[in-house]
Amino acid sequence: MRISSKLVVSLLCLGGLLLLYLLLGNEPSIRGTQRSRVPVPSGQGKVQPTTPGHFRAIEDHMPKRDPRLKKKKSNAKASSSKMRVPERKQKAPVPEEWMHLAVVACGDRVEETVTMLKSAAIFSIKKIRFHIFAEDALKPEFEQKLDDWPQQLSRKFDYKIYPITFSVGNAQEWKKLFKPCASQRLFLPMILQDVDSLLYVDTDVLFLRPLDDIWAFLKRFNDTQLAAMAPEHEVPKIGWYSRFARHPFFGTTGVNSGVMLMNLTRIRKQQFKNDMIEAGLTWEEMLHPLYQKYKNYITWGDQDLLNIIFYFNPENLFVFPCQWNYRPDHCMYGSNCKSAEEDGVSILHGNRGVYHDDKQPAFKAFYEVIRDYPFDGNLFQSMYYPLQTKFLESVHTLCGRIPQVFLKQIENTMKKVYERRVIVHAGSRVRI
Ligand SMILES: *[C@@H]1O[C@H](CO)[C@@H](O)[C@H](O)[C@H]1NC(C)=O
Ligand SMILES: *[C@@H]1O[C@H](CO)[C@@H](O)[C@H](O)[C@H]1NC(C)=O
Q1: Number of the ligand 1 atom closest to the C-alpha atom of 223
Q2: How many other C-beta atoms lie within 10 A of the C-beta of residue 275?
Q3: How far apart are CA 123 and CA 210, in angstroms?
Q4: C-alpha distances out from residue 75 to 10, 56, 428, Å
Q5: Which atom of ligand 1 is nearest to the CA of 218?
Q6: Is it the case that residue 288 has pLDDT exceeding 70?
Q7: What value does the mean pLDDT take over residues 17-27?
Q8: The pLDDT value given to residue 299
Q9: Mean of the per-residue pLDDT values for the chain?
Q10: Distance between CA 392 and CA 395 in Å, rounded?
C-alpha cells in the first residue's frame, strides 16, 4: 500500500517534469538578461587589422537613445567611440562580464570552426565574444554562417573577424611555422590589447559543457599564474615530448596548446625568464629571439615555443586536468585520463583530423551531431539521442568502449540547460 502510493507520487513527479520539458523547449533563453553596455573593444592596439572588424549584435550594447545606430552592423570603430559613455553621473549598471573566445582558422576549416563556436554558444550561460582570426577569403563564409543562426542564440554572442597579422619579426616566416596561421595565437596578447582574458582553442575543439566552467579557472589562478593548459600526455612512456623532444618543455610530458586559457593583462605585464637574456623579456620581446634560437629543434611550431617558455617560467602556468582537453591519445591505447573517467569529458579535442576520417568514430560522432543540430530547441531529441546511437557504432574501437567517459558530461550539461530553463523562464516558450 505504502509502496504503491510512493510509486504513484514519483510517477506523477516524473510526468510533471516531462510536461514541463515539452512545454518549455530547452535552450536557455535569454529573456530578462540585463542588456549590457559593455563597450566593444575599440582599437586592436598596435596591430590595427587592415579591414575593420565586424561586431555582430552591436545594437544590443548600445545606449538605447541613438536610433540611427540601431541597425548599423559594421564599422565597429565608429560606433565604439559613440559608445563611450562620458561619465557616470548616475550609478552605471554593473557591466555584465563577457567571456572571450579566440580561434584561428585558415584553409579548409570554416565548417569545423563554426561547429566549435556552435557548441560554445549553445551550452554557455554568460555572453561570449568570438574573436575569429581568418584568411580574408574565409570572411564572407563565416559571416553568412554565423548570421544564419537563430535570433535567440545570436543574443548570446557577438563576433569579430580579424585578418591574420603578425606584430613582430618576419610575417612570412611566422606563417610558415608549421600549420599555416597557427602561430597567430602567440600574438593574441599584443593584438587584443583591450581584452583582459581569453580562451584560445583550436578549430577542432568541441565544448560539452558551458564555457563558463573553464572560464572559472581564471579566478583560481594564484598571483603568478597567467595561463592554463592541459598536459600533452598522461603517460610519459608514450608521450611525444618525453620521448622525442630536442628542446626544453614543461613538466614531464609537456603541455598541449589546443585549449589555452590566458590572462592577457598579466601576460602583457610579465617579464619572462629565458635562456637568452638574464634580465627577462616581455612576451612580445621574447617571441622572435626564442624562435630564432630554437627553430631547428622544434617540431610542433608554436606549441613547442609555449612549452619552452613555461619550462623557464613554470610558476606562471596553471595546469588543468585532461578532461578539459580530451584527445584521441587519452583513449586510443586504452583509457588514461583519470579526470575524464571520474567527471566525463568536458572539452573534446579531435586532433589528428579525426572528425574527418574514420579512425576514431567516437570523436566523429560528436562532431557530426553538433554540426547537424538543427537549433530546434530539442537537445535530447536532436542531439543526445543521435549521439548515443552514433556512439554505439564505435564500440569496435578502444575509445568507443568507454561511453560513460564520453557521454557523462554532455548529458549532465543538457539536464542543466533544462533546469535553468524551468527555473528561470517558466512560462516563456522561446525556442531555438
Ligand atoms: C587578470 O589579471 C589582472 C591583473 O592581475 C586582474 O586584475 C584581472 O582581474 C585578471 N582577470 C581575471 C578574469 O581574473
Ligand atoms: C602558483 O602556483 C604555481 C604552481 O603550483 C607555483 O609554482 C607558484 O609558486 C605559485 N605562486 C604563488 C605566488 O604561490
Answers
A1: 5
A2: 12
A3: 5
A4: 56, 10, 35
A5: 14
A6: yes
A7: 47
A8: 83
A9: 81
A10: 6
User: What length does the chain have?
Assistant: 432
The reply to whether ligand 2 has any atom less than 6 angstroms from the CB of 253 is no
Q: 228 CA to middle of ligand 2, Å?
A: 13
**CA distances, 408 to each of 65, 68, 74, 413 (Å):** 47, 48, 41, 9
Residue 281: strand pairing partners: 272
Tell whether ligand 2 has an atom less than 6 A from the beta carbon of residue 225. yes
Q: CATH: 3.40.50.2000, 2.60.120.200, 2.60.200.40, 3.90.550.10. Which one for 98-320?
A: 3.90.550.10
What would the mean pLDDT of 68-96 be, rounded to a whole number? 47
Q: Return the H-helix or E-strand segment holding 161.
A: strand 157-162
pLDDT at 168 (0 to 100): 60
Asked whether the predicted pLDDT for residue 153 surpasses 50, the reply is yes
Residue having the nearest C-alpha atom to atom 1 of ligand 1: 263
Atom of ligand 2 nearest to the CA of 318: 4
Domain ranges of the chain: 98-320
Distance of CA 224 from the midpoint of ligand 2 (Å): 6
Pocket test for ligand 2, best of 217, 219, 220, 225 (most atoms within 8 A of CB): 225
Distance 227 CA to ligand 1 centre (A): 11
